[in-house]
Amino acid sequence: MASSYSTDLSIELVATGEKAGLWGTIQNTNLQILQTAASGYEVLTLTTGNVNLSLADGDATANGKNIFIKLTGTLAGNATVTMPAITSGGNANRVFFIKDETVRTTNNYTLGVLTTGQATATPVPVGSSLLLVSNGVNTLTFVGMMQKGYNSIDDNNSPYLAIAGDQLIISTTNNPVTVTLPAAATVGDEIVVIDGSNTFGSNNCTLANNGLNILGAASNLVLSTNRQAVTLVYVNATQGWTYKTNTA
Questions:
Q1: Are residues 163 and 177 in the same domain?
Q2: Is the peptide bond before 159 cis (omega within 30 degrees of 0)?
Q3: What sign results for the dihedral spanned by CA atoms 204, 207, 209, 215?
Q4: In which element (H, E) is residue 36 found?
Q5: Which pairing describes strands 229-236 and 240-246: parallel, antiparallel, or unpaired?
Q6: CATH number for the domain that contains residue 229
Q7: Where does a domain end: 147, 170, 191?
Q8: Contact between residue 13 and residue 3 where contact means Cβ atoms under 8 Å apart
Q9: Is residue 70 within 8 Å of residue 44, measured between CB atoms?
Q10: Nearest-CA neighbor of 43 among 67, 70, 63?
Q11: Do 135 and 181 have their domain in common?
Q12: How many distinct structural domains can be found in the chain?
């Protein structure tokens, strides 16, 4: 029976009587792969388009085997990072962290992460750190957010399409700003909007409902009080987005 590779991390599984004289090298590589999965750190520089992570067979340097992946670079377009769904050994179950340190606020470029074959990427809020689980069947699950970053928005970014987890510092010094809420939401999703210029009273910030209710109504919400800061949480289809906090 020939040697094969495991699922998930593609560790080489040596069959009885195989690889004479190579056991030491193979064992050391396998231990390095396990070390990478337990404490590995990868820096991935993004520009635009999709970047495929690697779970290559028997490769201790394959970047998708790292438990922690930092995303950097100045985006020139929308970007995604894709974790493989399978290896030669079968479905690849992966638990990993990502930390966003990309620069992407000027042109509202988006950043997402997904598993191969998944139709819609999991959005990554600016400056956030996420814990993710890929179950090897084209599904990436967002488990939790360890860190939330702040995204500065002004009229150059307007309208800005918000994603769950966004913490937005809004400047309406020169002109009003529109923040378009997500077209789909899950119970418990939150978005923070803060008047960072003390000018909501003169130049409003409009939260566009984008098909979902806000405070129980199918209409936009206008923030018009200086220094106002609100946290919206999605509760259900009837109420839609409602206040968790509102300083007005």
A1: yes
A2: yes
A3: negative
A4: helix 23-39
A5: antiparallel
A6: 2.60.120.640
A7: 147
A8: yes
A9: yes
A10: 70
A11: no
A12: 2
User: Is the same domain home to 22 and 117?
Assistant: yes
- C-alpha distances in angstroms, 142 versus 87, 95, 122, 151? 22, 10, 7, 20
* Phi/psi at 34 (5° precision): -65, -35
Asked if pLDDT for residue 1 goes beyond 70, the answer is: no
CB–CB of 15/4 below 8 Å?
yes
Amino acid, res. 179 = V
Range in 88-92, 98-102, 142-146 the model is least confident about: 142-146
Check the CA dihedral 244-161-47-65 and report its sign. positive
Contact partners, residue 170, CB within 8 Å, separation at least 6: 153, 154, 177, 179, 193, 194, 195, 196, 197, 200, 205
pLDDT above 90 covers a percentage of the chain that reads: 71
Site of tokens 């090298």: 25
Q: For residue 54, how many C-alpha atoms fall within 13 Å in the half-sphere facing its CB?
A: 12
Owning domain of residue 50: 4-147
**Claim to verify: residue 45 and residue 60 sit in the same structural domain:** yes
Chain centre distance of CA 4 = 33
Co-location of 10 and 92 in the same domain: yes
pTM above 0.85, yes or no: no
Q: What's the Cα-to-Cα distance from 167 to each of 41, 84, 99, 150, 196, rounded to whole Å?
A: 26, 30, 16, 5, 12
Query: What pLDDT sits at residue 185?
Result: 94
Boundary residue ending a domain (115, 147, 179): 147
Which residues are within 8 A (CB) of 142 and not within 5 positions of it... i.e. 6 or more apart?
122, 130, 131, 132
What is the SS3 assignment for 98?
strand
Q: Which of 86, 92, 91, 81 is nearest to 42 (CA)?
A: 81
